[in-house]
Input
Amino acid sequence: MKTVETNTDFEVRSLDTMGMNEMERREATFLNLKYAVVGVAFGIILVKSEVISWFRIQEMFRLQSFHMYGVIGSAIVTAMITVWLIRRFNIKTVYGEPVHIHPKPFNKGLVFGGLLFGCGWALTGACPGPLYAQIGSGATVTVVTLLSAVAGTWVYGKIRDRLPH
Output
């Protein structure tokens, strides 16, 4: 008789938590400015590459332009190479901690979530990463999308235990 291993809710949530060393580490507030600098630089890259453009996103979903597919495809290839390098050379974090990449089991919730995400992306012309860059570039109507994303995240957190994972 074959047994099937399933993750309990506790096991799944434990994959999302910080490591013990990270929880014990305290940095001065001004040292966190490095994250703001990286965020601003990332936002500038998003604006200059036009990936936050509503028109570029609409071209992608209407299959009229390769621009967004090229950007997304190059990001996927870069991530694949990076993960391979991390695993191949057992690369550690800047604090010397090992990097653990946990396998993510496939389930039908991923399909439904992906479809919902794609529909929202197509309708609003925004996904969570570029929202702040869109707002910063003057598309203030995107604040509605940001508030909706925050509300959706809150609702998911409230009903997570009742969803099929």
About this structure: The mean pLDDT is 82.
